[in-house]
Inverse folding.
């Protein structure tokens, strides 16, 4: 659906794109509330595209709120990536120590 919204943006159909992105966001919310794991990158892209659409429609107050949402999710994503990297690094150190002591 996000790709379809982007296509609408490219065709200068911002209002249609906004409706599609609202549906995307609602689907993400419903999925998350149902306990499904949502790729944070998808959340970021949908929120960013919604912010851009609102900017093009001069709905600047909502645009800025969605940009804040993008920043928030980017920060969480970076933190998660750092934690995964640290965990992988610890596993590699442990494996190396086990290999050396073998």
């Amino acid at each position: 659906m996000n790709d379809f919204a982007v296509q609408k943006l490219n065709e200068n159909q911002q209002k249609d794109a906004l409706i599609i992105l609202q549906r995307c966001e609602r689907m993400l919310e419903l999925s998350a509330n149902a306990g499904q794991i949502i790729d944070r990158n998808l959340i970021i892209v949908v929120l960013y595209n919604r912010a851009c659409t609102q900017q093009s429609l001069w709905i600047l107050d909502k645009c800025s709120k969605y940009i804040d949402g993008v920043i928030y999710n980017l920060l969480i994503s970076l933190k998660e990536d750092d934690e995964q990297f640290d965990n992988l690094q610890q596993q590699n150190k442990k494996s190396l120590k086990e290999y050396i002591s073998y």
